[in-house]
Amino acid sequence: MISRILTRGAAAVVSLAVIGTGLSAAGVASAAAPTDGLIGEYVFSQTAGASVPNSATGAGALAAATVVNGSDDRWTGDSLQFTGGAKNSSANWVRLPNDILAGKTAATISTEVKIDASMKSAFNFLWNVGNDSPTSYFFTSVRDVPRTAITTASNGGEVNARATNALEADRWYNLTSVIDGTAGTISFYVDGVKTGQANTALTPASITDQSLNAIGRSPWPDGFFAGEVSAFRVYDRAIADSEVAAISDQDASIHTAEMAARAQSILDGLGLADQTVDSGYVALPTAGGAVTWTTSDETIVAPDGRVSQPSEEDGTATVTATATSTVRGVSASDSITLTVLPTSDQERVDAAAAGYVLPPVVISGTVLPAPADGTSVVLQNAQGVAVAADGTITAPDAAGAAAAGDVTGTVDAVISRTDTPAVTVTKTFTVRVLPAGSSQELLSYHRTPTSANTANNADVALSMHLALPSDDGSAWTPLNENYGIFFPKTSVTPAAGGTSDDIIRSLVNPQVFALEDGGYGVVSTRTAREGASDGTQKSSVLIATSTDLLSYTEVGMLDLGETNGVNGPHAVFDSAADAYVIAWTDDSGTPKFTTIGDLADASTRGEIVAGAIADRGAVAAASGIDDYVAGRTAPVDAATITALEERFGRITNTGYAPFDDIAASVGDDASALELPTEVGLDYSDGSTGSLPVATWDTSGVDTSKPGTYTVTGTVKQTEYPRPFADERADPSVYKYDFNGTTKYLMIATNDLYGSNVEQQGAAMMPIRIADSISGLSDAAGAEEIDLLKRGDTDALGNVMTGCFWAPEYHEIDGRLSILFMPCYGNNPDMWSGRASIMQLEQDASGADLDPAVPANWTKPSKVLRADGSDLNQIAGISLDMTYFQDEKGQAYYVWQQLGSLFIATVDPTDPTRLTSEPVRILAPQYAWDNTIAEGPNVITRDGRLQLIYSGSTVGDTYTTGLATADASGETDLLTEAAWSKLNYPIQKSGLFDGAWQLGTGHGMWSEDEDGNMIYVFHARTDNNNLSGRDMFVRRVHWSAEGLPVFDMEPEEELASPTVTLDVVVADDEVTPPVDPGQPTEPGQPGQPGGGEPTGPASGSSVDAGGTSGGPLALTGSGALYAGLGALALLVAGGLAFWLRRRRTH
User: Fold this and answer.
1) Contact 230, 41 (CB under 8 A)
2) Which of 58, 263, 609, 920 is buried deepest, with most CB atoms within 10 A?
3) Which distant-in-sequence residues (6+ apart) come within 8 Å of 130 by Cβ?
């Protein structure tokens, strides 16, 4: 039988609170909302009128607020209803006084709000401090996961503090934003609880123009807010956490009846019912901490669900369990009856035995895990391996020494309970023992989120990181620069119409474990973005598998049958039971475990057992890892270690390939020798590369006489200015054959102060032209030509007023072309933008006209579907278009719309029309590329298409992903399955040359003067006190696996710029035997002026006394000695040559 109780504080009275009195709904005093620093308190409790008075009366109190487009029927008596609607509609909104926080370095804004369901997906501003320009503002939005943010550089510069979950529609929340200039933080609170915080140097004083402050209106083209607001407060200070909670409690009292209903609905959602219990645990669900429990007999059933079953002699017991839920001060309770059955000693030992497991893979010298408290284990009968008295396992070879390779053996474990030692269970485990010298423990972990400024915001920190022991074993060395390596996918596949924040997922407490088949598994708790529960933590774990720990297959969520939360999960394969054991701690702190036969099939799950399992590998603290939370280790072999280090470690230049000797002749001009023009470079992962040799110093080569001379060369390693170009985003560099002359072209989005739509009212599309890549840089003083500007018209005569986004050069059907997106409207609207193309005109002979002359380009035309309709038939906007061909010559466009990448075929002779329907090939699926995939660019390398793209909304968290596909033309590229995507970013924010480089992305492949591949991209900097995105240029290295490396430091690319080779100078002719009896002509060999030294004439011989002999003198021993001498010279020469080729490099 279920009994129910509703309470509010000490009474069950429901009444209306009065703002500012500090009285609860029951009339019981509670903490009052603070009044210190309160400059605006707008209570929407009236029933008519357009003026909303400010009830704050202290110093600096603001004027009244005004309802714009108001109507008396929108007042409810305790709130104002906001109708919502398009930006150009007559929807109502509230205008706040000007300059409400002008000059303030701290502030708090709190809103009691109920949102309409449409706000969960529509772009909106709940409130805004700023003006009518989307450049500089402080605001809160309730779209997806609600957030507060401040910026002076448009959306790209927003510093966000977020909630942990999306809001529910049609229920009241208290949302509070706090900026603390002294602490340098912005924080967000939901119902009085801090949910997010970020570091920022911005304060309300940074918003210098506060001429249009509002509730319900955005400075962007977003629609108006829809919902209700009952109270809105403004403080000119950063209030404390307790004060935020007091505001929430006070405002909740306006809606006590709703809070009571919510508290009861939480209990109703548990589906509570009386139960019969026949195990050591009963589920007492807590709804993620929203419910607490008490029991009538804690010795039988504890509040955390642990059960001490009575003995068979004592018989059945009955216990009453009571659940209580409290929502913003209002409580509801339900009670159920638990009938607890008795148990036997054998059943208890069987349960204990299920929790004792020897791991299937260990490193020789590992101490096997001890049993849980209350359990006793004897290890015996080891076969093929050795187990010492202290539990240390080793793998000796036949001679008794440590085995050089893996050894697999078996060990028996005799298990009993300490209170019933005579009752036992024996389990036989199979264990693979790795050699200690070449194997290591791999640490998996997540991090405490800090800031995007150090590439450790929650989207990155809450993923699986990996580390290996340092060389001396005293600390840990993080892989991938302490960045995530495995990220969970979104909870569902992003919808065809676009994705949203509320399906983004993160993880905590990841553990790598050995699979039955020799691969690896990963178990973790999946969370919502920012780390809150996404609902699955109540009962399930996230499972993934990997063959090599380089790439991962997400199996999905595995339901463990838990109802009270899964925390810190860890798994081990039980070879004795042929099943996996998964253990965790529930929300009450109770350790539990269960068995599972198939990680992809919850129906193979066993019963939940309350208690800990035999455990090893937990690492509470990890020296060498910043912001480490907790993790676990797993043994890995030498091959896995090498692969991890090569993929996720730094790649460095280890030397260069030796040059062949250069042959020269006596009398040659040393400066005219044909010496190598490039050097082959070797790298630590086994990859190779090359760079040009700029100069060779041949001054030490003396060609007047034979000899071997070492020549020194200097490698050309061009380092480009950093930044390459200020305020130039989405950059493109193109190596251009201008009618037989090589030129380099640059084009980019104008991002002055981050204003890339209207661009300070002077929108333009600038290009640069130079004879070298370096000549395009700001440092070289490169001039810009505005190829397009605000007011120019497209091919249909429509006036383009802004954007000119993401321009790219391509050669399409032999014509230099630019793909880009302009936008339209007197106040440029990015949503009006469409992917467009313009092409360079040619003369009658087919020669290109001068690309520096704007009139030489065609008017921009929109790229449309084959039937002439828009590419994006849902939202209109299409952008970031790129072009490529497969190896059969089929041409394709790839572009961004609806937050994802789409592909279609195109006929190069008519590049304004697709020849196939658009197909989505890549949607943002991870926290690191959250909500958007854009900026694609494609090259072909070694038969594979390499598609780079950018993810995570433009800002400090921008990253670059990689997808690859078959380039042969034999694969249908118009399918998502044709493209393989890395689980982690190929380029990310990180340290470069000792400084943080943030928001790296929207890159393009290109080629430098020497044929090296380069990568052109943008990053966020404050160079020259400008806040827009800046352009950078780097060379690309290709790893031994064939992956691009975009962040190789100069000293990693080239250890030393000096190289050497040998020049061997020799006479062209060899002296033949000379017969002194035969005369020679002057100028012939053997005579002064001849090509060889003088000597006896041909056919003569010289005896010991120096006299000439007959023509047979060079026979017998004389011929033998001459032959041996020649052989010795050959051997000596060959040895010298071999030694030169074997020199260290």
Assistant:
1) no
2) 263
3) 136, 137, 138, 139, 207, 209, 210, 212, 213, 219
Cα 1097 from Cα 355, distance rounded (Å): 100
- Mean local confidence (pLDDT), 758-764: 91
Percent of the chain with pLDDT strictly greater than 90:
79
CA gap 669, 557 in Å, rounded:
74
Q: How confident is the model at residue 25 (pLDDT cuts 50, 70, 90)?
A: very low
Q: How far apart are CA 312 and CA 314, in angstroms?
A: 6
Radius of gyration, alpha carbons of the chain: 38
Round to whole Å and give the CA distance between 434 and 470: 19
Instruction: Say if residue 1127's pLDDT is above 90.
Output: no
| Contacts by 513-518, CB closer than 8 A, 24 or more apart | 513/570, 513/571, 513/572, 513/573, 513/634, 514/359, 514/360, 514/361, 514/572, 514/573, 514/634, 514/635, 515/545, 515/573, 516/360, 516/573, 516/575, 516/578, 516/580
Q: Which residues contact 994 (CB under 8 A, 6 or more apart)?
A: none
DSSP character for 639?
Answer: H
* Residue 1070 confidence (pLDDT): 53
Q: What is the pLDDT of residue 343?
A: 93
E-strand ranges in 944-994 read: 944-951, 959-966, 980-981, 990-992
- Would the pLDDT of 963 be above 70? yes
d(CA 888, CA 1011): 23
Q: How far apart are CA 100 and CA 90, in angstroms?
A: 25
**Residue 880: Cβ within 10 Å count:** 25
Which SS3 state, helix, strand or coil, does residue 250 take?
Answer: helix
Helical residues (DSSP H) of 1-102, grouped into ranges = none
Contact indicator for 961, 982 with CB cutoff of 8 Å: yes
**Ramachandran sector of residue 744 (left: φ over 0; alpha: ψ -120 to 50; beta: rest):** beta
DSSP tag of 357: -
Residues 6+ apart with CB under 8 A from 1119: none
Q: How many CB atoms lie within 10 A of CB 1142?
A: 9
Q: Which residue has the tokens 């504080």?
A: 9
User: What is the CB neighbour count within 10 angstroms for residue 77?
Assistant: 10
pLDDT at 18 over 70: no
- pLDDT at site 1073: 52
- Report the alpha-carbon distance of residue 247 to residue 96 in Å, rounded: 21
- The side-by-side arrangement of strands in the sheet containing 1058-1066 is 653-656, 678-683, 688-697, 707-715, 1058-1066, 662-665
Half-sphere exposure of 293 (CA within 13 A, CB side): 29
pLDDT, tens digit (0-9, with 9 covering 90-100), for 703-714: 999 999 999 999
Better-scored residue on pLDDT, 843 or 7 = 843
Structure tokens given for 174: 């208290």
The residue to which tokens 């061997």 are assigned: 1064
The DSSP element (H or E) to which 139 belongs, if any, is: strand 137-141
Is pLDDT at 911 greater than 90 in this prediction? yes
Quick: pLDDT tens for 861-884. Answer: 999 999 999 999 999 999 999 999
With beta carbons less than 8 A apart as the criterion, state whether 235 and 37 touch. Answer: yes
How far apart are the C-alpha atoms of 229 and 222, rounded to whole Å?
Answer: 19
- At position 834, the amino acid (one-letter code) is R
Give the integer Cα–Cα distance in Å for 318 and 301.
9
Average pLDDT, the chain: 90
- Categorize the per-residue pLDDT at 1021 as very low, low, confident or very high, splitting at 50, 70 and 90: confident
Handedness of CA 912, 914, 918, 920 (dihedral sign): negative
Beta partners for 275?
338
pLDDT value at 388 more than 90: yes
C-beta neighbour count of 616 within 10 angstroms: 16
- Strand-by-strand arrangement of the 879-885 sheet: 879-885, 891-897, 900-905, 919-922
